[in-house]
Write a structure and sequence with these properties.
It contains 15 helices and 24 strands. The chain is α/β, with parallel strands linked by helices.
Length: 482
């Protein structure tokens, strides 16, 4: 009997660190752990390390390789000795909204950015956070920001920092690595040329900073103190794509804290509208992606407003005959796609007839899915085929979402079994690096049966959503006066 070879994958996400230990050959999950992260959009990276230690405690015996899948875009600034000089500014911190507008204009507009890096920056991109910090320091903000701007010697991403922290022989900022997938979300690396645009770092920050070396997809970049090889790792969405083994014609639609729609592509994309980010993936190809800031929490927040448990909310949305023209724009935490960082949610079409819990629940699910349908259409506009949608994330457990998604997304919907796909993708990358093979190992992804689809007038629902969005966009673009 062949002895199992074990690999570990880590999902260092916004909310928690999750660890899976897998059979390197089959991908079977043998051990799992989890630990929460502190809330907030600016976090001390040491909290991630502490969460890793808790989540991995007792799991790592016999593990031969490990890889990190990390939340994209977050800015981690280090001094010459490798010390963190400012709390990590996470992807969902929208403080850099004004900086984003300035940077886009300074390079020559959205088309110039799409040509340079395959994407048009939004406030989640790291490059905008660099400009925000520079501006904060220049205007005499808190001492911690002025000090950080002075001391910063290197800028890295959460996955880069965790990968370096795992290495037993780390020295300051020497030897820090990243990968194509995560580098493509910074705003200063081009998936088309596979090179850094250091001029964009200087444009944002006013001076150069050290940047991580971009490792190959299956490269081993170090060794842990417990003797395991460290694979390159990647960003969370690229790791999820690897964990799902996305094939041509597949689009993953994830409903977590954020909503994402992404697909693998053999060619780079460059969308000047800014809807589609032209990211790289973790295999050497590309991962065009659309991201929204609002997803599963739209349903939980609406359920709370209605005084319903999530199961009752779901039942109400399913039993409602429709939303009767009630439209909910789900921009509860600002929005990235469409680019409305200052926006709030909006309900249109309130009447005595529509002010009912079931109608409101149905409108919330429809509004959430209409936003994601726009994301899927943006991928279609880039020439990507959409034959089936893989529905993921906590929000995908909603029976109402499953039932309404085929009509509103315009494709067959399949439901991969609930799993930690970012951590699984990182584990699959670790297994790939350990094997030395030319391609990742083949792991089977179990697929469940979604709720039967409901027949609805998707054309009218989406047209109502777009009309309300277009008519209120000038209002939504203005900062909300709390």
């Amino acid at each position: 009997m062949t002895e199992l070879r074990l690999v570990a994958g880590v999902d260092c996400s916004t909310q928690a660190t999750k660890v899976v230990v897998c059979d390197a050959e089959t991908g079977a999950v043998l051990r799992e752990g989890r630990a929460p992260h502190p809330d907030g959009t600016q976090v001390d990276p040491e909290a991630w390390w502490q969460a890793w230690q808790i989540a991995s405690d007792g799991l790592l015996d016999g593990v031969e390789a490990v890889a990190i899948g990390g939340q994209q875009h977050g800015m981690v600034l280090l001094d010459d000795s490798g010390e963190v000089v400012h709390p990590a500014v996470l992807w969902n911190d929208t403080s850099s909204a004004d900086a984003t507008t300035e940077l886009i204009a300074e390079l020559g507009g959205p088309e110039a950015w799409a040509e340079a890096i395959g994407s048009v920056p939004v406030p989640s991109f790291t490059v905008t956070k660099l400009r925000w910090l520079r501006d904060e320091a220049a205007r005499g903000a808190a001492e911690v920001r002025r000090d950080a701007a002075r001391r910063a010697a290197a800028v890295v991403l959460p996955h880069d920092w965790m990968t370096h922290r795992l290495a037993a022989d780390r020295h300051g900022i020497e030897g820090i690595t990243t990968d194509r997938g995560d580098a493509s979300g910074t705003g200063w690396w081009s998936p088309t040329t596979n090179d850094y645009r250091t001029d964009l770092v200087e444009l944002a920050f006013g001076r150069q900073l050290a940047l991580p070396r971009v490792a190959g997809p299956a490269e081993i970049v170090g060794q842990t103190s417990f003797g395991a090889a460290i694979a390159a790792g990647t960003g969370d969405n690229a790791a999820a794509a690897l964990g799902l083994d996305l094939q041509p014609g597949d689009v993953a639609v994830s409903l977590g804290t954020s909503g994402t729609a992404f697909a693998r592509s053999t060619h780079p994309t460059a969308d000047p509208t800014g809807l589609v980010a032209g990211f790289a993936d973790a295999t050497g190809e590309y991962l065009p992606l659309v991201c929204t800031l609002n997803a599963a929490r739209v349903m939980s927040a609406t359920a709370q407003m209605l005084g319903l448990e999530l199961s009752a909310f779901d039942e109400a949305a399913l039993t409602s005959p429709g939303s009767d023209g009630l439209v909910l724009l789900p921009f509860l935490d600002g929005e990235r796609t469409p680019d409305l960082p200052h926006s709030t949610g909006l309900i249109y079409g309130l009447t005595r007839a529509t002010m009912q819990p079931a109608t409101m629940a149905r409108a919330a699910v429809e509004g959430l899915l209409c936003g994601l349908a726009d994301a899927v259409d943006a991928l279609r506009d880039q020439g990507l085929p959409v034959q089936r949608v893989l529905l993921l994330g906590g929000g995908a457990r909603s029976r109402a979402v499953q039932a309404l998604a085929p009509a509103l997304l315009g494709a067959e919907v399949v439901l991969p079994e609930p799993a930690e796909y970012v951590a699984l993708g990182a584990a699959r990358q670790a297994a790939w690096a350990l094997s030395g093979a030319a391609t990742p190992p083949t792991w089977q992804i179990p697929v469940g049966k979604p709720e039967p689809a409901i027949t609805v007038d998707a054309t009218t629902i989406r047209a109502n959503y777009e009309q309300v969005l277009n008519n209120t966009r000038p209002l939504l673009a203005q900062p909300y006066n709390q």
